[in-house]
Structures are given as structure tokens and as C-alpha cells.
Amino acid sequence: MELVIRPRTSKAVFVVIAGLGFVATGVFILKSPPHIRGETLVGWAGIVFFGLCAVIGIVSLWPGSTYLKLNDQGFTMCGMFRPHSYLWSEVGAFRVRRLLLIQKIVAFDFSEDYTRGSSLRKLNFRIGGFQAAIPNLYKKAPEEIAAIMNDYCQRAGCSA
């Protein structure tokens, strides 16, 4: 049985609107008469950075660019059209953790047999106490996603 969890669009819309607002501020800084040294650099930096943020938000709104797909073999996380797939046998239990005391995420660790990205996994574990995570982008709450994923994982015989 396959389940696809789609992203919430509200965060992406906010990123687009805020990004475009800051781009407009950068344009305003460039158009106004220079009063302080470095205003041109600040204006261009704002336009480039927040313009990229707006583009990322627009891409995130594109259908099929972001999803979490679960099936009997494993799961696929896709963000910005870049899918990452894992077998249930490659992962352990899913749990909800707080990131920077604010954002909830679904965290998980890999099995000992999983060898890809070992250096990054070790660093993630040292910093956050988990090896990998699923971002809080989806229409379901992290607690619900963790429960669903643990159910799929247990039915597949993994160590969750």
C-alpha cells in the first residue's frame, strides 16, 4: 500500500511573499540617493539572497517538487525535485525531536548495515542526537508522520 504525504503550501507562500518584499526593499535601497557607504552592496546582497529565497519558495509550490512517499519497501523524501529513497531495512525507529527548540521534525537513525554518508551521519548525531530527519513541511503533524512511518517500518520487519 502506497501513501503520499503532500507539503503544506502556507510556508512556501510566506517565503515567496517575504522574499519578494525584501527584493523590493533592495531595489528601493539602490534607487534612493546614497547616504551611507556600502548601501549599494547591501541592496544587491538583499536582492540576490532574497530573490533566491523567493525562487526556492516558487519551486516548492510546483506540483511534485516536494513529497513524502511510503510503500511496503521503504520511503522517499523529495524536496526541490531531488528524491532520496531508503529501504525500511536501512532505518530504525522514527521519533519527533525539536530542532533549535522551535521546529519539530521526524528524526531517525540508520541501521548498522547502512554505509552511505557515514561522516555526515556521525556529525548529525553529535549535533542533534539523531542521524537524519524529515523536515516539518507536510500537511500532517510530525507526531502523526512518525507514527505512520513506524507502522510501515514494523510491518516490513525493521527494528522500529
Q: What labels describe this entry?
A:
4-stranded antiparallel β-sheet, 160 residues, elongated, single chain, PH-domain like, alpha+beta
Could you describe the 3D structure shown?
44% of the residues lie in helices and 24% in strands. With 160 residues, the chain is of the alpha+beta class. It folds into 2 domains: 3-61; 67-155, FACT complex subunit Spt16p/Cdc68p (PH-domain like, Roll). It has a 4-stranded antiparallel β-sheet with strand order 1-2-3-4, with helices on one face. Strands 5-6-7 form a 3-stranded antiparallel β-sheet. Strand 3 and strand 4 (82-87) form a beta hairpin. Helix 1 (10-31) packs antiparallel against helix 2 (39-61).
Brief digest:
Helices cover 44% and strands 24% of the residues. It contains four helices and seven strands; from the N terminus they run βααβββββαβα.
